[in-house]
Amino acid sequence: MATDLILQSVTRYINLTEKESDYFISLLKPKTLRRKEYLLEEGDICKNSAFTVNGCLRGFTIDQNGYEHVLNFAPSGWWIADMYSLLSQKPGNLYIEANEISDVLLLSKANQEKLYHEVPKFERFFRIITENSLVAYQQRLMDNLSLEAEERYHNFCKRYPTLINNLPKKDIASYIGVTPEFFSRMQSKMLRRS
């Protein structure tokens, strides 16, 4: 059940009473996205954090040459949002799109503020997941600056083990910062070595 998964995610970091759990669940809005449907587009103001119940979302930007740069994925059990836009309530830079049919639970910024007021321990929960996200982004930036493409691919496999065989190769290539052609050659070379 959708609510079971999100409650498991939350209770990894904070303990909730039944009343607190029910209140939290009452603030969530379920949404189903079709494959390739956008949850958010560049220029939109991000009003919600999304928790993926099943399926997979990807966050990406498009540069002035029309190339996509994948920043992150949100498979089942992960949160995703344009954090800059969500926190500032200014137009964002990210697209968030469903890679496949995906069910998500949306928590609006307004409801998140209500949650902080009514159940203050949720501030701890969101602080922890925000800190974890910041650490992951910093590590990814350092990897992109200092590691070879093959090492970045191995790190992708560790971070998203359930996605390795489920994503289009062009999305993985974009995430690790190489062209799809380079990625195919690299994979062939890795297969020959093993």
UniProtKB/TrEMBL annotation:
Official protein name in the record: Crp/Fnr family transcriptional regulator
